[in-house]
Each structure stands twice: as C-alpha cells, then as structure tokens.
Amino acid sequence: MTDITADFAPATAPAPTNYLNDGTTLWSWLTTTDHKRIGILYALSITFFFFIGGIAIGIVRLELLTPQADVVGAEAYNRLFSLHGIIMVWFFLVPSIPATLGNFLLPMMIGAPDVAFPRLNLLSWYLYVGGALFTVYVILAGGVDTGWTFYTPLSTNYATGHVAAAASGVFVAGFSTIATGVNFVATTHMLRAPGMTWFRLPLFVWAIYAVSLVMLLSTPVLAMTLLLIIAERVFGMPVFDPARGGDPVLFQHLFWFYSHPAVYIMILPAMGVASELFTCFARRRVFGYTFMVYSLLGIAVIGFMVWGHHMFVAGQSPLASLVFSFLSFIVAVPSAIKVFNWTATLYRGQITFEAPMLYAMGFLALFTLGGLTGLHLASVPLDIHLHDTYFVIAHFHFIMVGGTVSAFLGGIHFWWPKITGRMYPESWARFAAITMFLGFLTTFLPQYVMGYGGMPRRYQIYLPEFQIYHVMSSVGALILAVAYILPLLYLGWSLLHGRRAGDNPWGASGLEWQTSSPPPKENFHGTPRVEHAPYLYHEETTGPDVDRRVPSQAREERP
Amino acid sequence: MIGFSDIAQASQYATSVDIKFIVLTVLSGLVALLVFGLVIFFAMRYRRGSLASRAPLPNWMHRDLEIGWTAATAFTFLFIFWWMATAELGALTQPNTNFEIHVEAKQWMWKAEQPNGAREINEIHAPSHTDVRLVMTSHDVIHSLFLPALRLKQDVLPGRYTYLWFNADRDGTYSLMCTQFCGTDHARMIGKFIVLSPGEYARWSAAQPEADDIARQGAALFVSLGCAGCHASASRVHAPDLHGLYGSKVPLEGGDFATADEAYIRDCILLNKHIPAGYPAIMPRFKGTVTEAQITRLIAYIKSLSTALQGAS
User: Fold this and answer.
1) Parallel, antiparallel, or unpaired: how do β-strands B162-166 and B249-251 relate?
2) Which of A30, A347, B65, B279 has its CA 20 to 30 A from that of A485?
3) How many Å apart are CA B110 and CA B155, to the nearest integer?
4) ipTM for the complex?
5) Alpha-carbon distances of B13 from A450, B94, B165, B286, rounded to whole Å
C-alpha cells in the first residue's frame, strides 16, 4: 500500500539506531521533543496516577463490604472517593489514549516525522505532571471532600480542605489538554504524508482528530469554571452563592458543559483503537468507513449539546429537560452505528483471537451495555429515580472503564511490538484480558441492581439490604486489581525477555507498521507515499479467501 | 420482585416508572443479545481457516444496510423519547392541592413542617390517597430529597423553592435520603418517609405539639414584623393589597407580568424585587432579619388570604 523511498532494512546494522537507544540518559528523556518518547513519558505517569486512584477506590470498596463505617471515618471516606474521581478523570482517563497512544501513533499513522509543535508537546507533559502531582499532594496532605464535581455552594462556601489548591492543579493540567489538542489538530492538518487524503486516514487518526477538537473547545470552559470557584472561595467574589445574588445551578451548567464533552474525550479515542483492532484481527476493511468517520464527528458535535441531562432533578426547567433528553437520544444514534459496524466488520473475516482482539471484543460488549443503559438515564422519568444512585455509577464505569480501559489495554498490547520491538507473552495477556472482562462484570453489574433499588452514590453507610451487592462488587474489584497488575508484570518482563517482534508481527496495514520496530527517531527512513485507502487487507472486489498475513510493504515495494 | 429489585412501590406513579424501566430494559436486552449473538456467531463461523465462504460482499450491503440500521436505530430512539416525554409531561401537572408540607434541608438533617404546624426532623409523615405537595428549600448547600418508594427525587436548593408532588396509595414506612453530595455526613442525612391512612394521619398530627396552623403563625408575624402597617387594607401608605395576590399575574413596571408564586413573594420580602406597577419602591428589604421558618409562615399567611377569597366568592 505504501512506498518508502529510502531503504528501511535495519538488518545490516548490528544495533540499529532507534528512538529508544538514541540517548539513554534520564536527561535525554526529560528534554526530549520526540513524540514517541513523550508518549512513553505520559504512559508511565498516567500508570502511576492510575494506581494511586486505584488504591483510593480499593479502600472505598473495602469499607463498603459492611453497611457500617468500619475502616475509615466519614471525612476520610469522602476524601478517598474525591481523590479517586479527580485522579481517574483528569489524570488518567482524559490523557489516557490521546496522550500515550495518540502521541506515539498519530504522526506515524499519517506519515509525519513528529507532531506539528514538538516543544509544545513536551510542555504539555510538564504541565500535566506538574498539575497532577500538585493536586495529588494537596488531596493527600490537606484533603478535598467535594467529589470530583466540585458542586457549589458546597465547594465554595462550606467544604473544608484545600478546594482552591486542588482546583488550581486541575486548572494547570487542563492547559496540557488544550496544548495537546492544538498540537494534534495542527499535525493532522499540516503534516499528512503525500497521498494521505482525509478519507485515507485510519479511524484512529479520525478519532484523535475529533477528540482534539472537543478538547480545544471544551477545556477552556472548565478552566473558566475552576477560576470562578477559586475567585469565590479565595476572594469572596459571589458568583454561585445565592445569598449574595449568585446562582449555584449556573455552576452545574458550566461544569457539565465541559464534563459531558469530557466523557466523549474519554470514549472517542477508545472507539478509534477498537476500529484498528477489529479490522486487523478480522483481516477486513472496516465496514462502513465513511459512516464511521461521520459518526465520530457527529458524536463530537452533538456531545456538546447534551450537558443538561445531568441536571434533570437540579431544578432546571422541564422544557430544558425535555430538549436535553431528546438530544441525548440523538447522540446515541452514531454510537449505535459504530457498534453495528464493528460487528459487521467481523462478517466474512479471517478472525483470530490474540489478546488485543479479546480486549476489543470486551470493549464492544461493555460499551454496548453501558450505552444501552444510557437510554434509561436519558429518559426523564427513569432518570429522576436513577439519578445519583449506583445505576449511574455502573453506567459510566461501563463506558469509561469497560470501554476506554479495555480499548487502552488492547491498544497497548497491539502496538507493544512497535513501541518496544518485543512481543508480550500471549497466554498471559489473554488470561489478563479475560480476567479483566469477568472482574469488570462482577464489579459493576451488581451496581445496576442496587442502583435501581435506591442505593445512593457517595454513601459510606447504607441499608443492610444492599450489602450482598456491595460484597459482590468488592470481590469483583479485587479480580479487576489482579487484571490490572498482571500486564504491568508481564509487559515489564517482556521488555528484557520478550521475543523480538519484527517490523509488522500482525501483518497490519497501517503506515506505522511500515517502518522498523522500534521506529527510528524520525519515524520513517524517508517520506512515505500513500496510494490507497486504509485497511487494505484484501482487494476491494474479493473476499479474504486467502489470508496472506504478510506485511503489506513486502507486496507493494517499489524502487 | 419488580424490575430486578425488591424496592417498594408506594404510588401508581412508582408502578408506571417500573413498567417503563422493565420495557426499556427488555428492549435493550434484546438489542444487546442481537449484537452479542452476531459477534459470537461471526467469531465462530469466520475464525481463521474455517471453511465458510468469504465471497465478496454484495454491493447493496454497504450502503443499504448502513442506511437501514441508522434509520431503524433513530426511529426506535425517537419512539422511546416520545414515550418517555409523554410520561414526563403528564407528571408535570401539579395537583390542585392545599396539602403542603414544607421541607427544609440543612447539613445534615431534614426538617419538615406539616400543614398544621407539626414539626418533624428526619421524618416526613403524609396521608395516603391525598395529593401532597412538598415545598422545599435548603438552609446551606444543595441537597436532594430522594423518596425511592415513590421513584421521586428533586434537588433542594438554597435561596429557592423546589417542589415535589405525589399521591401515595400504600401505607408503610419507607426510606428518605439525600442524594446530592452535601459534605461530611451526607450518608447520614437519611430518614423515614411514613405514609398513613388519612384517619391515622389525622390522629397522628393532632397529637403533635406546636400544632398551630402555620398560616395563623404567619398572621401574627405579619403584625409583629410591621408588614401590617402598610399592607393592611386600612393603611394610608400606598402599598399593594395582598388579598388574592397568590397565584395572580402581577403587572410590573415596564409592562412585564410576574406570577405571584412562593419564589415571587420570597423575593419581594427579602430583596424588594419585582415591584408592581404604580407602587413606589419604599418597602425595606427583610433579608437577614427574617429566618427561613418565618418566611415560610409569612408566605403561608399570604396564600391563605387568597384561598379565603376563593372560598368567599
């Protein structure tokens, strides 16, 4: 499919130069402007924060084994779930796929040597790490007990703890998101290789592009909202305090105007990853490529107009609730189209079940269940009952953990040979993927049940009839913990002992597979030229009767 | 076992919500089964090296299928929306009832006041087979009153009134919780929602201390706070007469109209906002000098002036 003008055979050199051995000091990593190294810096830091957030919720799940308070006090409990929410949303999920896989792959997939603004890219990472470390320090040292939602007037006038400091940390990290968004949009527009037209872009690139636009347009609203919180809390400027002419509901509008698109910031990249995985392991072009592109863009646009479905019981007007309910049903249509297209991609394929494919199938199942329960929550009469119960918790964990984390791990396994040059141990990875799927269902299916039964979220003590569900959920969380720690161990092991991967172990079709593994610093040995639409696993007019499964570069080589 | 949980149903509305939930869940379940069934079937039939045919897809599949399932999904979702929206609109109609319970939320307790003035903490008694309206406000942060047995929930805001209404049809003791995170003891801001038959309710409320009608207490406040000095019909100060005010359309300066509901009266008392057309802005602001409980009583009194009028005419 692609033709590389310079030679790309690293076999002649005993230790070919690649981005990993081109400077090995800590300093060379901390000052790198190579998008691949920055992707790895992000991967290491979000993993660190993921496990801190995980420990926090681990203690919460331990506490919830019994209906009484027995592990921590009320204040500590509130701080723990606030810590979990703030870290997982802003310091893990938002940067998860875009800043790691996106950073690493976006330039390679469009045939560019780097992102448009390499130094801005490094600055994003420093802003992220600075903001995240500061926030985590603040929460651990002083405590924040407002939940990740910072609802007013609780956060501005009543909560003890360092709300303003934590908000400033998130504010700083927000600029890292904005900078990454600017960078990716510019990269996609400016740096596509010759022949890489918009409709030859892989769906992962489309997803990252769409999500970058959402980041650019929504994150400034979060920044503004957090500044208003700080202004009210520190300087006493009455914006949200009703006793002085402010409006606490205004905060919710502003907050969800960012935070609902933020949900799409978390799930759109996962959809991109899943598309790459299904097409590769089914050996078929993605079914309905153009519909997939337009549904990504549709979700990104309509996703901005549904924030009010978080506020059906907040005291907004019934007319507003009706409109937001309608738009929430509309935004579900493109998501459904994507599910059908992934399913249809499998039709008449040559399917194999390596770990990335298992993760992708897990993603499909959990995303579908999470999406369908979204219909319940978009229905006003049902949401009035379900709002702020465990039903909501289960719903968004199905999307963000079942969906995004499954796709993230699937992507990490899929591109691991490209990133490190080594294969991961397949059996362990399959075991971890299946464990994660089962652990996830054990944790979150019971939460749907107790949510409908009337178990409110953010409760440390609860009615005894809910205990059985909480115990199941906590056992599931333990299984999930195992499924998250396992990859850390065997992927770490594979760095030293894994089988050498070769350039294209999956026989995949993307440009990133056309270069050596690990790639050289400048990604390609020469400028790639693109002559076909993506996912050319077999000719348009034939079925995949022959599964050649050889790197496509071998077929299409030219002088 | 309604839905998949043994949650109590204490009103017809609760039953109707449960039916909607079950139907939507079954519908979602069928869609999920279809998708999972296809994925599993394809995964087995088209596993690598199987003998199933991999002939190229017919052309119609690419376009028609795509348009077909997009349209089918959109219509299904629109239908569900229409169905749910109809129910929402139906539930919007407030009952015409004088049976109002005032609820005040504060960190971390629920205070309720029955129409006859009986006060409760973390308990709300209500008669069954009666249209009941809750008038709620918060003393501090945002809380949310959740009555799972009625499938009802409404945020309770500071500086504003929000409402819930219901007609419970099954006597019993149910739970009542705060579902909007409100600080340290959020999980302890729980209580009992007790539905009694009308007869039992009457016995219960008569046995409560302080059982003075809150509108009557409001009338006393109306005098002691000095309101009567201007607003009484005999007064020579040019101030609006409050008989028949509640629920009426008040013409404002500039040609607008305001509906005189609780929020309107509250703003008038506290902030001297919304001055009716033709009256000078001479009323003092009572913000900071009257308590939430006093406002509740004053509003109850002003409302009683309207109901008395309706009764007379």
Assistant:
1) unpaired
2) A30
3) 13
4) 0.90
5) 20, 13, 11, 40
Q: Can the peptide bond before residue A342 be classed as cis, meaning omega within 30 degrees of 0?
A: no
B54–A350 CB contact, under 8 Å: yes
Query: The domain containing residue A84 runs over which residues?
Result: 2-7+25-555
**Which of A158, A372, A379 minimises the CB distance to B140?**
A158
Q: How many domains does chain A have?
A: 1
Reported as a single tens digit per residue, the pLDDT across A26-50 is 999 999 999 999 999 999 999 999 9
Any domain includes A19: no
Pick from B31, B162, B188: CB nearest A315: B162
Structure tokens at A293: 């592109």
Q: Give yes or no for a contact between A433 and A358, defined as CB atoms under 8 angstroms apart.
A: yes
For A156, name the nearest residue in chain B, comparing CA atoms only. B141
With respect to residue A16, please indicate whether it lies within any of the assigned structural domains: no
Contacts of A282 in chain B (CB under 8 A): 46
Contact B127, B203 (CB under 8 A): no
- Number of helical (H) and strand (E) elements in chain A, helices listed first: 18, 2
pLDDT, tens digit (0-9, with 9 covering 90-100), for A137-178: 998 887 888 999 999 899 998 888 899 999 999 999 999 999
* Nearest Cα residue in chain A from B53: A348
What's the gap in Å between the CA of A271 and the closest CA on chain B? 16
* Residue of A241, A359, A384 best to disrupt the B interface, most CBs of B under 10 A: A384
In a domain, A18, yes or no: no
How many CB atoms within 10 Å of residue B168?
Answer: 26
Residues of A with Cβ-Cβ distance to B142 under 8 angstroms: 151-154, 248, 314
Best mutation target among B12, B23, B35 (most A Cβ atoms within 10 Å) is B35
**Which run of H or E residues covers position B119?**
strand B119-121
- pTM, two decimal places: 0.87
Which chain A residues are within 8 Å of B267, Cβ to Cβ?
A: none
pLDDT of residue B55: 83
Distances (CA, A) of B80 to A304, B17, B28, B74: 22, 14, 11, 10
Chain B interface mutation, best of A82, A84, A295, A313, highest count of B Cβ atoms under 10 Å: A313
In the beta sheet, which residues pair with residue B146? B153, B177
Residue closest to A145 by CA, chosen among A133, A157, A160, A156: A160
Contact B7, B149 (CB under 8 A): yes
State how far the alpha carbon of B276 is from the alpha carbons of A3, B238, B240, B252, B256, in Å. 79, 12, 8, 4, 10
A365 chain-B contacts, CB cut-off 8 A = 36, 39
Task: Output the DSSP codes for B191-247.
Answer: EEEEEE-HHHHHHHHHTSTT---HHHHHHHHHHHTTHHHHHSTT--S-----TT-TT
Q: Which amino acid is at B173?
A: T
* Residues contacting B234, CB < 8 A, separation 6+: none
Other residues' Cβ atoms within 10 Å of the Cβ of residue A532? 14
Note whether B84 contacts A249, CB cutoff 8 Å.
no
Which pLDDT value is given to residue A556? 39
Q: What domains are there in chain B, each with its CATH number?
A: 12-92 (no CATH), 100-206 (2.60.40.420), 214-312 (1.10.760.10)
Q: What is the CATH number of the domain that holds A297?
A: 1.20.210.10
Residue A375 to residue B28, Cβ atoms within 8 A: yes
Q: pLDDT tens-digit profile of B266-311?
A: 888 888 777 888 788 888 888 878 888 888 888 888 888 876 555 4
Of the candidates B266, B276, B22, which has an alpha carbon nearest to the alpha carbon of residue B157? B266
* Alpha carbon distance B59, A551 (integer Å): 28
Name every chain A residue with its beta carbon within 8 A of the beta carbon of B78.
Answer: 329
Nearest by CB to B84, from A151, A381, A460: name it: A381
The two tokens of residue A193 are: 């290789």
